[in-house]
Design brief:
The complex is a heterodimer of chains A (309) and B (249). Chain A is α/β, with parallel strands linked by helices and 309 residues long. Chain A has helices at 16-26, 42-49, 70-80, 93-105, 206-220, 228-232, 263-266, 298-308; strands at residues 2-6, 31-38, 54-61, 86-90, 110-114, 116-119, 122-127, 132-138, 143-147, 162-166, 175-182, 195-199, 223-226, 253-257, 274-279, 292-295. Chain A contains eight helices and 16 strands. In chain A, the strands form three sheets. In chain A, strands 5-9-4-1-2-3-10 form a seven-stranded parallel beta sheet, sandwiched between helices. In chain A, strands 13-12-14-15-16 form a five-stranded parallel beta sheet. In chain A, strands 6-7-8 form a three-stranded antiparallel beta sheet, with no helix packed on it. The longest helix of chain A is centred in the C-terminal third of the chain and has 15 residues, at 206-220. Chain A is globular. Chain B has six helices and 13 strands. In chain B, the strands form two sheets. Chain B has a nine-stranded mixed beta sheet with strand order 9-8-7-10-6-1-4-5-11, sandwiched between helices. The chains are: A alpha/beta (309), B alpha/beta (249). The interface between A and B is large, with 90 and 80 residues. The complex binds flavin-adenine dinucleotide (FAD) and adenosine monophosphate.
């Protein structure tokens, strides 16, 4: 059983989610290669080669891979797929964008967002916003899989895989990168942070996020998250959304502030180790999943909490 | 241009589904069904393209049970021009949906397919990308903005680090994310008018696509439930618990 893990990166660093995907791949079989495609991605390939358990890194360089657009990347993955029984990518925006395209080109069904590997062909994945877990067996000759990072430990460093340069595939040339607007932050990355402080609609403005949420997060060395309502209202950028259709997190500590606890939000954080809820409504559903709840006005409680730390 | 909008009938987003005790699936008896919320956003986008004069015709299509007509009627009430129901009682996987949609595209020749990024029942987030692959078209997934510029489509996408904009050759596939637009409610007169709009009923066989499953469901189980914890009275108590009981600070 040989697996190929498709590396996600931002052009500079290997995504943390790749090491977690390697762990998922190890549940399928021990021959694990990593594909790094990019434009000037030598350092990223070197980082992938250091992951324990990796046999070989395939490194493809081409300007068309600079932003990991799905059309050229899927063509590349398909060009090397013949050697592998399983193709895995983290269920990041890039993974979710590219892998179904790969699956369809190979005429197989993707197994999305797995949270456990039962055997080489059987996997567990959440459905209905995590209200049910489906164990599915794939009858396809090749498995195309996306992996939920929050459910797997990262593979350690300490490997020394060889790096093999491979040829770029023909670019279908139907899509081009125009630009990006990335959120700048010195805080830990939301998907892998140990502590997440999340704010909801109750914050009522982006200024209040700055005044109440940012200082608390900084005191805790935490990442910041938000509910859909807070993102829709423009209090926080889209990449802060936690939930069924946003990011899935499982930190040691998740602090939900002024968030009601809709099922779509819970889907993204209910596997956190410890959950704290601050909400003025004692009936709010968030309290049903919180280890520690405090009923009251966040505008009073959050500053108190910050100075008590 | 002509726009095709695939819509799926799913459990309403407000319903908390229950797993069946025999572990074969979730209990859908007497549960409220609706159009997948992302597909409402897709319909809205297509209708806006028509209102802006960019689109000439909007066709809604669904693959599902007889009752999925309701979701087509909703799309028609929102402003789509006509509908297609591909009727089947079987569960259809995204790959098969994509193959059926490809066949519909061969018949309808749309310039653009706008669909949801994810169905909130299977949470697959695959079908649009698969359809793009099968057609050899470009894909603009997780879209929060779509602009038609000089014969190309500029799509702004919600990605992990923020927003990314790509330019796509047409024809193309767009999958809608939450912030693409706010879908309208259909007005009563439009709901009445929708009843008279054309709706074709077809079967998978009409498109030469066989419904086969690549994934077999071994079992469906309930996730481990979290126990509600305790309520603390003061911030001092909270900090103490986090430090000394939970050990997370
Ligand atoms: C297709 C679809 C996908 C979705 N995906 C997601 C997703 O990925 N993530 C997500 O989060 N949501 C998602 N949602 C939305 C979800 O259903 C809820 O609408 C959303 O989570 C609500 O956000 P909220 O808790 O911030 O707002 P509300 O539900 O409005 O809750 C605000 C809370 O703040 C409390 N409050 C108000 N004032 C104060 C105060 N001064 N002090 C303390 N507490 C206060 C209130 O008691 C209330 O509980 C999705 C919905 C749909 C239909
Ligand atoms: N049975 C179906 N009929 C019509 N459209 C569908 C169907 N299944 C999925 N889709 C479309 O594909 C999108 C993504 O679904 P999925 O890949 O299942 O998460 C949905 O938002 C719909 O637009």
């Amino acid at each position: 059983m040989a697996s190929l893990v498709i590396a996600d990166h931002n052009g500079e660093n290997l995504s943390d989610a790749v090491a977690k995907t390697v762990t998922a791949a190890a549940g399928i079989g021990s021959d694990i290669d990593v594909l790094v495609a990019g434009d000037g991605a030598g350092d990223i390939a070197a980082a992938a080669a250091k992951l324990a358990g990796v046999r070989k890194v395939l490194h493809a360089e081409d300007p068309s891979y600079a932003n990991l657009l799905a059309e050229p990347l899927a063509a590349l993955i398909v060009s090397v797929a013949g050697d592998y029984d399983a193709l895995l990518a983290p269920a990041t925006a890039n993974g979710k964008n590219t892998m179904p395209r790969v699956a369809a080109l190979l005429d197989v069904m993707q197994i999305s967002d797995i949270i456990a590997v039962e055997s080489a062909d059987t996997f567990v994945r959440p459905i209905y916003a995590g209200n049910a877990l489906a164990t599915v067996q794939s009858n396809d000759p090749k498995k195309v899989i996306t992996v939920r990072g929050a459910s797997f430990k990262a593979a350690e460093e300490g490997g020394s895989a060889s790096i093999e340069t491979i040829a770029a595939a023909d670019n279908p040339s139907i899509s081009t990168f125009v630009g990006e607007e990335l959120t700048k932050s010195d805080r830990p990355e939301l998907s892998s942070a140990k502590i997440v402080v999340s704010g909801g609609r109750a914050l009522a403005s982006s200024e209040n996020f700055e005044e109440y949420i940012y200082p608390l997060a900084d005191k805790l060395g935490a990442a910041i998250g938000a509910s859909r309502a807070a993102v829709d209202a423009g209090y926080m950028p889209n990449d802060y959304q936690v939930g069924q259709t946003g990011k899935v997190v499982a930190p040691e500590l998740y602090i939900a502030i002024g968030i009601s606890g809709a099922i779509q939000h819970l889907a993204g954080m209910k596997d956190s180790k410890v959950i704290v809820a601050i909400n003025k409504d004692e009936e709010a559903p968030i309290f049903q999943v919180a280890d520690y709840g405090i009923v009251g006005d966040l505008f009073k409680i959050v500053p108190e909490l910050q100075s008590a730390l | 241009m002509k726009v095709l909008v695939p819509v799926k009938r799913v459990v309403d987003y407000n319903v908390k589904v229950r797993v069946k005790s025999d572990q074969t699936g979730v209990d859908l008896a007497n549960v409220k069904m609706s159009m997948n919320p992302f597909d409402e956003i897709a319909v809205e986008e297509a209708v806006r393209l028509k209102e802006a004069g960019t689109a000439t015709e909007v066709v809604a299509v669904t693959i599902g049970v007889e009752k999925a007509q309701d979701q087509i009627r909703q799309a028609l009430a929102m402003g789509a021009d006509r509908g297609i129901l591909i009727k089947t009682d079987e569960a259809v996987e995204p790959l098969t949906v994509a193959k059926l949609l490809k066949a519909v595209c061969a018949e309808e020749n749309p310039d653009l397919v706008v669909m949801g990024k994810q169905a909130i029942d299977d949470d697959s987030n695959q079908t649009g990308q698969m359809l793009a692959a099968l057609l050899g078209w470009a894909q603009g997934t997780f879209a929060s903005k779509v602009e038609h510029i000089d014969g190309k489509l500029n799509v702004t996408r919600e990605v992990d680090g923020g927003l990314q904009t790509v330019s796509l050759s047409l024809p193309a596939i767009v999958t809608a994310d939450l912030r693409l637009n706010e879908p309208r409610y259909a007005s009563l007169p439009n709901i009445m008018k929708a009843k008279k709009k054309p709706l074709d009923v077809k079967e998978p066989g009409d498109y030469g696509v066989e419904i086969s499953s690549r994934l077999s469901v071994v079992k469906v189980t309930e996730p481990s439930q979290r126990e509600a914890g305790i309520k603390v009275e003061t911030v001092a108590e909270l900090v103490d618990k986090l430090k000394n009981e939970a050990g997370v600070l």
